[in-house]
Structures are given as C-alpha cells and as structure tokens.
Design brief:
Elements lengths: L3 H5 L25 E7 L13 H19 L3 H4 L3 E12 L8 E11 L3 E10 L5 E13 L4 E2 L4 H16 L22
Antiparallel strand pairs: 1-3, 2-5, 3-4, 4-5, 5-6
C-alpha cells in the first residue's frame, strides 16, 4: 500500500537539507548545550486536539539532530560517501502541549559517544515563554549504507565529537536529561 508521499513522489525532507556543513574549528568554544534549531509549529503538525501531535515531537527532534550533524560535519557530501547516522533508540517525554504557529527552541547535548555510536539529549522549549515542552534521548549509530552495517567514525569526526563531548561533560548539570538510555560497553571496547 502506497502512502500519500509515495503517490506524489515526495519524501520527507529536513529543513536543512542541501545546506553544507561549516568547517569545524577544534579550538573554538563549544556552547553547552548547543542551540542549533528553531521553528514554529506548522499546520500539518497539529492534530484534532488542536495541539502538536506526538509524532511531530519526534520530527522536530529529528530536525534538531540534523542541525547537530551539520554542525559536526555530516551533510549531503558526507552521506554521498555512503555514510550516515541511523537512530537505534529514542525515548521522548511529552511535558506540555503547544499549538499552531507557536515558536520552538531546541537544545542538544552530546552525553556520550564511542567509536560507532552517539548518545544525545534534546530539550524543546517554547521560545517565548521559555517553558520546557518535551525532552528526548537518542542513541545513534554510524552506518556504512552500502555495506548495510555499522562502521567506525572517521578519526576527524571522532575528534570533533571529543571536543563537543568534553565541553558538554564539563557544563553544569541539566535537569532536562534523564539518561534512561546509555551506550553499553563490553570490556574495554564497545562492539556494535
């Protein structure tokens, strides 16, 4: 059975699609948390209860992840090499409703990483009222799309994640992060 987007030849697109990454400066200060994405609630995100539908919270968190990928250097040119990040796990807490046209501000923290995985935490705020609307935690896996399996990050990307993680680990605690997910490590090295 085809869905509407298949029938019209459309696919889901990130608002940042086509935007190249800016070169990453390993010596530059890294904000903690990162604030890389803002948007307003779109009409197609509003359900019959007149607020943003639960599936659209994940969509917005995904757009925030995409902004983070570009910040770290993962864009269309990177994916053209057959490499990308796939979501392995997501945990979302919906705390407050938000309506059509209301402004959203997203933050992101890199909680942990290893040679193939990232553990990130998102927070979604009402941009005007500054109230926390939702949080999300995700485990992302670096994938060789041609081989169809996980693969280690290139060393330059690992160096960027190290700089970001160090800045985020040294930042004051954040009560929006529950850390219900984690990167499981076996022995001294992780195996994904």
């Amino acid at each position: 059975m085809k869905n509407d987007s298949q029938e019209t030849g459309q696919r889901l697109r990130s608002p940042l699609e086509g935007q190249a990454s800016v070169p990453f400066d390993l010596r530059a200060a890294v904000p903690a948390p990162l604030e890389l994405h803002r948007c307003n609630v779109k009409v197609e995100w509003v359900d019959y209860n007149q607020h943003m539908s639960e599936s659209c919270y994940l969509l917005v968190f995904g757009d925030s992840s995409d902004a983070f990928f570009r910040y770290a250097g993962i864009d269309e040119a990177y994916r053209a090499q057959g490499l990308s990040l796939y979501t392995a796990e997501t945990y979302i807490r919906n705390l407050r409703e938000v309506g059509l046209g209301e402004p959203l501000r997203l933050t992101l923290r890199l909680l942990d990483f290893d040679h193939k995985r990232l553990h990130i935490a998102h927070a979604m705020y009402h941009a005007d009222r500054k109230t926390l609307l939702a949080t999300a935690e995700q485990i992302l896996v670096h994938v060789d799309m041609n081989a169809g399996k996980s693969t280690p990050f290139p060393m330059d990307l690992r160096a960027r994640f190290e700089v970001i993680h160090r800045a985020h680990a040294q930042a004051p605690g954040d009560d929006t992060v529950n850390t219900l997910l984690s990167i499981e490590r076996r022995g001294s090295a992780s195996t994904v």
